[in-house]
Amino acid sequence: MLRQTAQLLKRPALQQSQHFSTSTVVGSHIGRTPLFFPQEVTLDHDLTPIQKPRIASELNNTLLTVKGPLGQLQLPIKPFVKLDTTINEQQQESVLQVSIEDATIKEQRAMWGTTRNLIRNMITGVSEGYRIHLRLVGVGYRGVLENNSRSVSLKLGYAHPVVVDLPEGVTCTIPQPNRLILQGINLQEVTSLAAKIQQWRMPEPYNQKGIFINDETIKKKEGKKK
């Protein structure tokens, strides 16, 4: 009996089983969610294919321009992504619906929710802006603005100050010597700059010193006892 069972298991039909799904492809739950934004923000979607892109992946993309009280941002969008904007007069707001041509194609489904999130970040940026607080925790740690406030000089315990240039569109204010506030309309640029500055003094758990972002905390570790 055991020999017969072993012989049956050697058959290809039993060794490799195939599973086929007949369920309907479900689109992105994030992508299909309407995006509400104030009427002071405008969206201009240029459907002309981009022929001279900054990077190769943007070739033949369309270009979305988002304008608001704080400035404007642009986003290359895949040609299969469709944008439909309407105005809700009662609520005095605009409504954006993002869709794609074919939800059965994996690439299109992947870009559906991603595109909506990027547009949402842009709308927030041009209407409210982004702000990140940095806390310099350590003896003598302090920051000073230089070069007409286009760079910040940081004293972080090194032999020489660390000078960080601010990218275009990002500003820095120093309400206290050990407090920095980064502001801008581009979320990626603001967060990238904060991470770049933090790399000079990552928070360490023993003395709890370093550069902390917003309400970031770190659990203290006890050193080795002699």
From TrEMBL:
The keyword Cell membrane does not apply. The keyword Ribonucleoprotein applies. It comes from the Eukaryota. Residues 59-129, 138-211 form the Large ribosomal subunit protein uL6 alpha-beta domain. GO terms for molecular function: rRNA binding; structural constituent of ribosome. GO terms for cellular component: mitochondrial large ribosomal subunit. Pfam families: Ribosomal_L6 (PF00347). GO terms for biological process: translation. Keywords: Ribonucleoprotein, Ribosomal protein. InterPro entries: Ribosomal_uL6-like, Ribosomal_uL6-like_a/b-dom_sf, Ribosomal_uL6_a/b-dom, Ribosomal_uL6_bac-type. Belongs to the universal ribosomal protein uL6 family. This is Large ribosomal subunit protein uL6 alpha-beta domain-containing protein. It comes from Absidia glauca (Pin mould).
